[in-house]
UniProtKB/TrEMBL annotation:
InterPro entries named in the record: PilZ_domain (IPR009875), Split_barrel_FMN-bd (IPR012349), T3SS_YcgR_PilZN (IPR009926)
Name listed for the protein in its UniProt record: C-di-GMP-binding flagellar brake protein YcgR, contains PilZNR and PilZ domains
Organism, scientific name: Ectothiorhodospira mobilis
Domain PilZ: 126-233
Keyword Lipid biosynthesis: no
Gene3D superfamilies (alphabetical): Electron Transport, Fmn-binding Protein, Chain A (2.30.110.10), predicted glycosyltransferase like domains (2.40.10.220)
């Protein structure tokens, strides 16, 4: 049995949880993350490094989440009550972000755990998440988009986020806002080719580079692909803050 911090005897369980409104949705999502043992990716406060954990147990009565020890171990050494965990994950292909302050740290069966607050809010696919990795200054990341008629247009990424991408397509491909495309053979660094649906949010001419700048939002993103995309983004973020050499 995990040890738990002592609740304030003068506070009822309902007063310690998140406010009404989005609370039921948040708890439903947290229960799914707990049941599936989905990987959670954590950074502490605004530090650039990311670490991994899972949700061990949800205690909605007290408004607590129990998280397992951060890996790599350097992350665990930085955890202390009062620090804020910025937590990123995906659920059914939807990117999620929330933040929770650390209330308590403990140990059970020679493994550390943390008690953090149930969040009062979550960002989902309708909101921009907290990071977008710019790729235009790196080695080109190639992709192919395909329209409903089966026509294919090669291009390369400008930037990438959990919710979507922006790419340059050379020439004048006939794509417009609202079009539903398929992303094919997106060559993410260090990963097998990535594929999913893309809803076009904007498409405009870039006369300087000679092509169409296309911005879109992912749809029909499988959970495994969403987790893989998240891992790539976290790795790119680490490389951006700690470049090799």
């Amino acid at each position: 049995m995990l040890q738990t911090p002592t609740a304030n005897p003068g506070t009822s369980p309902g007063e310690q949880g998140p406010p009404h409104g989005a609370a039921d949705t948040i708890l439903t999502r947290l229960r799914e993350l707990e049941a599936r043992q989905t990987s959670l990716h954590v950074r502490l406060d605004s530090e650039p490094e990311f670490f991994s954990t899972r949700l061990l147990r949800l205690d909605p009565g007290h408004g607590w989440l129990f998280l397992e020890e951060l890996t790599p171990y350097q992350g665990h050494l930085r955890v202390a009550p009062g620090r804020v965990m910025q937590i990123y994950t995906t659920l059914d292909g939807t990117p999620l972000h929330f933040q929770s302050p650390v209330l308590h740290t403990g140990e059970h069966d020679d493994a550390a755990f943390y008690v953090v607050e149930v969040p009062e809010a979550m960002d989902d696919a309708q909101k921009r998440l907290h990071f977008r990795t710019h790729l235009s200054g790196r080695s080109p990341v190639e992709l192919i988009v395909q329209d409903r008629a089966g026509r294919e247009y090669p291009g390369h990424l400008d930037d990438l986020s959990l919710g979507g991408l922006r790419a340059l397509l050379p020439g004048e491909p006939p794509v417009d806002r609202g079009d539903l495309l398929q992303v094919k053979d997106l060559a993410l660094p260090g990963e097998p080719p990535f594929a999913c649906g893309l809803q076009v949010r904007f498409a405009r001419q870039d006369t300087h580079r000679g092509g169409i700048i296309l911005g879109g939002r992912f749809y029909d993103l499988e959970e495994a692909e969403a987790q893989r995309l998240l891992r790539v983004l976290l790795r790119l973020e680490r490389e951006r803050h700690h470049p090799a050499g």
